[in-house]
Amino acid sequence: MKDSLVIIPTYNERDNIEAMVRKVMSLSHPFELLIIDDGSPDGTADMVRSLQQEYLGRLHLEERKGKLGLGTAYIHGFKYALREGYEYIFEMDCDFSHNPEDLIKLYIACAEGGYDVAIGSRYIQGVNVVNWPMSRVLMSYFASHYVRLITGMPIADTTAGFKCYRRIVLETIQLNKIRFVGYAFQIEMKFLAYKYGFKIKEVPIIFTDRTKGVSKMSKGIFKEAVLGVIKMKVSSFFRHFDRY
Question: How far apart are CA 226 and CA 231, in angstroms?
Fold first, then answer.
């Protein structure tokens, strides 16, 4: 059984990818890193390939043709992780909005704390967001409140994208039935983990907006989340969540 794999989807992250790879590789825990690149025209994948010789066996690359959505990138990565036998599977962004050093805290929550899912939470201790305009802070904060209201999940940061899963969670959740590909993907994964009764821990982090590259956020992504949460909740009434 392999230990820890960090999955990072990329599209045009040339400005960030080398620094991110080197930072993750420098951590005290021997994380392995899987980059899933959706055909970045800026040469992101080429940079990863050039670094693979330096980090043999620890830096992996999967390339896809074109932008196929955040959710499908993570599902691709999850299936890779399960196939290759990793016990702890992480997801995070490439733009340093998630501090790579916090990977250690998420790992400890699952490997030593006994939790099945650890969430890097912006809202478990107040609002810990840096460099976002107030309008976006409020939108994100109240989006999480809306999701909690509809789903009943006792999670403060329901839209967080910085997480650690034990492999049993990803084996139990039927990945081929995940419906959302954008912002709502993060919500659906937490909802399914919650419905299956897995132990979930929110770990406080400080989220810092990217300083390099271009954000992939759009109004359409938020719309998917708002409408998708209701559909997701309704469909759960007709689904069994038995783990055994």
Answer: 9
